[in-house]
């Protein structure tokens, strides 16, 4: 099963990426806008990409050496 991790911002990303790189296994990373009030990314392109990424990751569901790091980059500046 793909191992999934969620982090917020650059500091958490830097910490987690060092940990995952040390494993020397397959790593996918997605950067996305943080969720809005409805629980969806404020980024329209990210909203389109998320189900596609989930579909691709489904192909690796039986592979224990695949990791997916989802990075929430923050709120949309007004």
CATH fold call? Glutaredoxin
Give the end-to-end Cα distance, rounded to a whole number of Å: 39 Å
Share of helical residues: 25-40%
Question: Which overall shape is indicated by the principal axes computed on the Cα atoms?
Answer: flat
* Order of the strands making up the biggest sheet: 1-3-2
Classified in CATH, the superfamily is Glutaredoxin
The whole-number mean of residue pLDDT values reads 93
Beta-strand share of residues = 25-35%
Largest sheet: 3 strands, parallel
| Number of extended strands | 3
What's the CATH C level? Answer: Alpha Beta
Q: How large is the radius of gyration?
A: 13 Å
Number of domains: 1
CATH architecture: 3-Layer(aba) Sandwich
Helix count?
2
The residue ranges in which pLDDT falls below 50 over 5 or more consecutive positions are none
| Order of secondary-structure elements | EHEHE
SSE-based structural type: alpha/beta
Q: In words, what does this structure look like?
A:
By secondary structure, the protein is of the alpha/beta class. The protein has a single domain (3-72), classed as Glutaredoxin (3-Layer(aba) Sandwich). It contains two helices and three strands; from the N terminus they run E-H-E-H-E. It has helices spanning 9-21, 44-58; strands at 3-8, 26-32, 66-72. A three-stranded parallel β-sheet has the order 1-3-2, with helices on one face. The termini are far apart. The model has no long low-confidence stretch (mean pLDDT 93).
């Amino acid at each position: 099963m793909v191992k999934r991790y969620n982090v917020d911002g650059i500091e958490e990303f830097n910490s987690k990426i060092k940990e995952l790189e040390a494993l020397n296994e397959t790593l996918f990373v997605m950067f996305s806008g943080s969720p809005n009030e409805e629980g969806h990314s404020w980024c329209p392109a990210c909203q389109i990409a998320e189900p596609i990424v989930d579909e691709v990751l489904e192909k690796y569901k039986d592979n224990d050496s695949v990791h997916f790091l989802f990075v929430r980059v923050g709120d949309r500046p007004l």
